[in-house]
Structures are given as C-alpha cells and as structure tokens.
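Supplementary Note 3. Input sequence used for the single-chain structure prediction.
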Amino acid sequence: MREYMLKHVLIIPDGNRRYAEKKNIDMPVVYKLISDDITTKLIKYLIIDKNIKEMSFFAISRDNVLKRTGKDLDPILDAQVKAYEDWLKTDALTKNVTFKFIGDLDLLPKEYVKVALKLQEKTKKNKNGTLNILTAYDGRWEIREASKKAAEKNDLSENAFEKYLLIKTPIDLIIRTGGEKRFSTCPIYQSAYSELVFLDKFYPELTSDVLDGILKDYESRHRRFGK
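The predicted structure, written as discrete structure tokens, is reproduced below.
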C-alpha cells in the first residue's frame, strides 16, 4: 500500500453566491439545497462509499461570523442547523460517521451549538469515518489556542502545540470550489504537504462524477513529503 493513500480530505465550498446569481435564485434557496442535498451526498460518497477515514468540511469561517451581519449570516447558520437536525434522523450517517465540530463555538448561537453537540455526542462511538465540521473556524486561531494550552502546561518540547491542535491528522487533499486559488483560513499547519485542487465549478456543482476525476488524479500524483 502506498504511503500517500488518501486518508484525509478537506473541502472548501466556495462560490455559492455566484452560483445563485448564475441560476437567478435566492441565497436561502441555495443554502437549503446545499444542506439538504449537496453536502449530505458528499459525506456519504467520500466516507461511506469511498471509505475515506477522515473528511474536513469548512462550514463557515471565524471571520465570517465576526464580520458578517445577521442578514447575511443567519440564512447560512439556519441552513446548517437544519442539516444537522436532518442528519440526526439519518441512520446511514449516525451509524457510520463520527461528527466533530471544530472552531470557536462560543461565537455561535446557542441553538446552533445545542444541535451540533447533540450530533457529536450521538455519533462519538462510530468507527467507520470522521467528519470534522469547521465552524467559526480559523487555522490561525487554532494554532494560537494550541500554543496557549502548551504554555499553560509549561510544555517546551519541540512543536509542543501539536498535541493541542483540534485537527490531529495531516490533510492529504484540499478541494476548493468556486475558482479562487487561496487557502483563506483553512487548517494551516495540517496542510503542509496537502495536494491542492482548485475547481472552477461552484460548490453546488461538485458531484460524485467530478469527485471521481479528482480522486483518480490524486492517485496518479507522486508525493515526496520533502524527500
């Protein structure tokens, strides 16, 4: 088995607003489509069908939560809460996927956190695969928080903060939709040797067929890990 077998994939779902403009539909409708259909299918496809052990999904950045107004932010959060409520009722997910919510949850509405933690608690003993939902998340914030914990423990060992990172495993593949070619505030430390795929397609256009092509391309790449 090759040492660079795909174990952990991160999806950055960009381009939702441009998709809405392209299709001439309202943003709440797009957010509902994403939560009801697109993201659910991706989780099932990657973790259950393809047996990828870990998937991280960038639900919303910490900057978005801090800087967007309620008018822009509320439809996103409402759609995500609805998705979590639906996933709680979906046996294919709750019996196979371990859900973990990673980010500055103190910034989020109480109802959001309540449903998120309920889903996390219900699925914590699952073994098949893990979905990290990055919500109110920022890779710089994660490193700062981990460094603070290392300092509190007076841990001066090399890269001590690694022990306190919320995302424990390196990310093998990052897929960003929407045509933008940047990391934004995705997990920085864990992405040191990630393979990168930037798609011109918008997130609602990320189908299993598109993913098949990406996975096939990944398998053809030769990863050196600095060697």
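DSSP finds eight helices and six strands in the chain. The domain at 8-220 is CATH 3.40.1180.10 (Undecaprenyl pyrophosphate synthetase).
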